[in-house]
Design brief:
The chain has about 300 residues and is α+β, with helices and mostly antiparallel strands. Helix content is about 20%, strand content about 20%. The chain has two domains: about 130 residues, MutM-like, N-terminal (N-terminal domain of MutM-like DNA repair proteins, Alpha-Beta Barrel), CATH 3.20.190; about 130 residues, Helicase, Ruva Protein, domain 3. It contains six helices and ten strands; from the N terminus they run αβαβββββββααααββ. The strands form three sheets. The chain has a four-stranded antiparallel β-sheet. A hairpin with a 2-residue loop joins β9 and β10. The chain binds a DNA duplex (12 and 12 nucleotides) through α5.
Length: about 300
DNA sequence: GGCAACCTGCGA
DNA sequence: TCGCAGGTTGCC
């Protein structure tokens, strides 16, 4: 469940259980997720204290007092179950449905903290991964080298979009999904941001830059709608889709605010539009848009 | 650039 | 049974 707002929601849910806490016991239920776990993974965590839990794009980074950083990515279906010592369950972002036998399937990593809290990583499809990197090398690591701008940090504006997209013929949809340009957007929020900006997803990305490289008004608008949709989604606790249950009120709610995503053949939610949401496939993935709000680009 | 691959589950 | 799913990678 992993675009920027969901990962940020997870981060906030993990902070009370992890920051300042020591790993007492780390149990791996299998040798790998998407990649093998690092050498001596559990031993390198056990006894170490988490000094800070941050997010970069869709990655979580837990800084340890050992000088290493635990890097975590949720892939498509990764999530955390957080059991606090007082019995509260803070599982952030979403919740898995308990299996028929009441045993959660796909619990791959169990982290027992010295405080008594237990943090369990669950990932049905195992596209997520964990890694340990020297904190000093983090920015240059394979995970973060070449990563694009953080969209909610100050700086993403029309001029940046124009500079990043200038001379590119790739469709806007693909350009916005390219983590080397802007890092943190995924399928949902790209569709939503393009809709709010009134931009057709097949528009060549370079169309947002004028001949002199300056931003078009649409570039400025897109920068604004990206930040707007992400900010609203973070405030809503992210989006929770289909197969996840809402159990204690902290699951995401932004899916109710989708204007186009996963709404093919339903009415466009733009005020007074009256159009119908369409679905196309771009680089193998669904794109949802409203042809009325987002007309094909004309040069 | 696109596209299949990684893996599992769900709904049509 | 097939198609589809919030991501990323590596190979055309």
């Amino acid at each position: 469940m992993p675009e920027l707002p969901e990962v940020e929601t997870v981060r906030r849910g993990l902070v009370p259980a992890m920051v300042g806490a020591r790993f007492a016991r780390v149990t791996l239920r299998r040798p790998n997720l998407r990649f093998p776990f690092p050498e001596r993974f559990a031993e390198r965590l056990e006894g170490r204290t988490v000094t800070d839990l941050a997010r970069r794009a869709k990655y979580l980074t837990a800084h340890l007092d050992s000088g290493e950083t635990l890097v975590m990515h949720l892939g498509m279906s990764g999530r955390f179950d957080v059991a606090m010592p007082d019995g509260r369950n803070l599982s952030p972002g979403d919740f898995y449905l308990e299996g028929a036998q009441g045993v959660p399937k796909h619990d791959h990593v169990v982290m027992a903290m010295g405080t008594g809290a237990t943090v369990t990583y669950n990932d049905v499809r195992r596209f997520g991964f964990m890694d340990l990197v020297p904190t000093a090398d983090l920015a240059a690591s394979r995970h973060f080298a070449g990563m694009g701008i953080e969209p909610l940090e100050p700086g993403l504006d029309g001029a940046v979009i124009a500079r990043l997209f200038r001379n590119r013929f790739t469709p806007l949809k693909a350009a916005l999904l390219d983590q080397r340009l802007i890092a943190g957007l995924g399928n949902i929020y790209v569709c939503e941001a393009l809709h709010r900006a009134g931009l057709h997803p097949e528009t060549p990305a370079g169309c947002l830059a004028k001949a002199d490289g300056k931003p078009t008004p649409k570039a400025t608008l897109l920068a604004r709608t990206i930040r707007q949709v992400l900010t609203e989604a973070v405030a809503a606790g992210g989006s929770t889709l289909r197969d996840y249950a809402h159990t204690d009120g902290s699951a995401g709610a932004f899916q109710h605010a989708f204007r186009v995503y996963d709404r093919v053949n339903e009415p466009c939610r733009a005020p007074g539009c009256g159009g119908t949401v369409a679905r196309i496939v771009q680089s193998g993935r669904s794109t949802f848009f409203c042809a009325t709000c987002q007309p094909a680009f004309k040069a």
